[in-house]
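$ fold --in a.seq
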Amino acid sequence: MTEKKAKLIPPTLILPFILVTSLFALWGFANDITNPMVAAFKNILLISNFESSLVQFAFYGGYGFMAFPAALFIKRYSYKSGILLGLLLYAIGCFCFIPAGWMMAFWAFLFSYFVMTCGLAFLETCANPFILSMGDAETATRRLNLAQSFNPMGSILGMFVAKNMILEHLNPMDEAARTTLRGTSVEAFNKIAASDLAIIILPYAILGVVVTLFFCVFFFSRLPRNAEDEDRNLDVLPTLKRLMKNAQYIEGVITQMFYVGVQIMCWTFIIQYAEKTLGLTKADAQFYNIIAMVMFVSSRFICTFLLKFINQGMLLLLLAFVGGFLILNTIFGGGNMQAGAEFKLLLQQSAEAGFWAQLGVYLKAPFVISGMSGLVTLILASSCMSLMFPTIYGVALRDVGKDAKIASAGLVMAIVGGCLMTPMQGWIMDQSDFNLLFTTLSSVRMSFILPFVCFIVIAAYGYRTLTHPKRVAQESL
């Protein structure tokens, strides 16, 4: 008699699954409308790469600060309560952008980002283990990969909004011209800066309204309760002791920190790479960020399918290896101002030919102009990242049982990797060129050594799952 396969999502849980999955898109939007703001604030306020990267420090720092309190909150109350509080903080953070713009104070924007991500920490701490619990444990990793597939859809929308509602409407005056203007007329400089900041504020204010509507939907919705919700005893110290003895979990938290680091660094600094290496505008560079995200989305669905046939550790190892190889080409491969100038000429020639002709140029030009191969491989690296977050998450939480809520907090806190590593890469970019004896690399190129190191760590975790088969069971679904 053949054994009946476990369903990916039980029929009775399809509606709650869809509702909770919508949150993945909601925080994806916040992540990727924010990444291009690092370059935008640098130009508007005339600050260094390191200072502008503090946007990511504040944004992802909120995860590190609030993840554990969020876990205790949902352990004491419920997943639904945690989601509602997360949405409330998310909305408040968005609305804080309005007074931050009036004040024209960078620290006020950083505070707004921090409050936003305190809310996102609640949402991620709730949603990921909630999705894992919505069905059989055998299909948990695939179920989380499916839910996570909708995260980059929100990210793509966030990128489009950043490009079309923000970057393309900012004053085109470059950094040098702004510096000169500030030296001659502070009043004129402040007027331009205030206008640019107002452009940034509007999408976040609209986002605050959207998040408030989501709060109302969840408030009146019925979400399933499980055995974990009935156990409200915090039991913190014994739980932490059990988790600290779980090597699979501890290594997963460390690996997740490096994964988030590589994701945020690549998506944040693709604009600087395209600007400084190829001379492209921020808006043109952001278009390639969107292409990278489209590839990320497509790869997520493909990898979710491949998990039916390939061991998750093997797939993680292979993708990390390929990702590292691609980043090496970003560091040492082709890319120069002449290639960028030729590419911009192609864009100008196609400007009157309509949207589809322009899109064709964007897609073909990097492959026609060999000097842009570094940018191409930076884009392709996103395809390798798609599997990583949910797979590392699912492997690390495998068999933690009733400790899942607090264990989830550790994996959400690992998002602090984006908080720590992005300013490190920004600091490297602020340095002079690097003489490596056999060649000289610009600081922008050299900074991508950090994403390369991250891929090595992820590959090592994938290898560990293969060499310790008892720790991670083979999924033959």
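$ fold --in b.seq
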Amino acid sequence: MAAPLALPLGERAVLEAIRREAHPLTGERSDYDGLVALIGDARIVLLGEASHGTHEFYRERARITKRLITEQGFTALAIEGDWPDAYRVNRYICGAPQDRDAEEALGGFRRFPTWMWRNAEVLDLVGWLRSHNDRLAGATGKVDFYGLDLYSLGASMEAVIGYLDREDPSAAARARARYECLRPYAGDSSAYGQAVLLGVDEPCRRRVIEQLVELRRRAGEYLLRDGAAAEDEYFFAEQNASVVANAEEYYRTMFGDRAGSWNLRDRHMADTLDHLIAHLDRHGANTRVVVWEHNSHVGDARATEMAGRGEVNIGQLMRERHGSDAVNVGFTTYTGSVTASSDWGGAAERKRVRPALADSLEALLHASDLPAFILCPLAGGESGRALLEPRLERAIGVIYHPQTERQSHFFGASAARQFDALVHLDETRAVEPLERTPGWELGEPPETYPSAL
């Protein structure tokens, strides 16, 4: 444990404020009473994570999500996952017969990193969502499950064509012809960005936009059929066409414009969320959505180094568009283990998470000697005012390089401006993939790091 007396005087005052205002998390239902009160009537709750591979982040987000569903009337969960893969889960939890169980319903999540959604905690949550929906007599109040991301170039093209095969075979033939130039890259979408450097650019862009425009222009014809099911299926297809158009631009620009491709992705996720809410509202609901994404997406970009690079994220966009109707919750950890890879596309590994850097937010929260707690509302007390000061924060995505983490994984941010509430889980463990390879089971050998690291 950290020794508070070794901290500078100003830091000791911050630490004391954190200790006074922290609400310990004990596993009781009341743990998140303050957060539920803060959320109030807000329609959008964004729950972050400091890594894509930490068991406790998934577990605590599931606890919060279940409360918001059962007590506050939230009826949708949207994740940092691909639209067609998540929609397969949606069909399952709403009672469709195609998949026999929750694990089979998660079968669409086969793109790297598979452990991000094919893990034990998500499996349990999907099973719970199905049971929750099954207990409801009618369609009212059932929970839906959606993906906001744009990486599903190949799957989304196939979904558009599949929809048109059923509804309009001649339009399906046109869609096949328009998407033909992207088919060589359906299995490795990043290769499209490399091909653009060799001149494969405008023909694909023009054709995917033409397909999206035609689908929207002919929406009236496809929606002549009665019932919400027809509207849902059209919305699913239109969103897939939008994914193809935005994915084409994302992969086309990813090698030459880092900020531009990042912004395109987060704007796509924000626009998808807004379109989703509008779609569900048309069925007469006051839609309320829980969003699961990384802190780097959920925390307001204006409070981080991202702003200096000209980057925005969904947390910033939701605040700008919805004000107090959007609540952002961040999650942090100090040390433990994490499921991550050493390289893009590599195998899942169970890696040690080094103790956070001494001048980081995580080290300060660790010095409280509290194993798990929430600061809520973050900006409402002395601790929040103290945490307005920019500090280093750690972000572990699907790749973790502990040897270079100061350069690879830490960035400057003002936590009290990023988030409305902050959950700290001091020592955490790796999330369990559904496919537990021998390499993951073995993990890294234990090692004691010097306290200065």
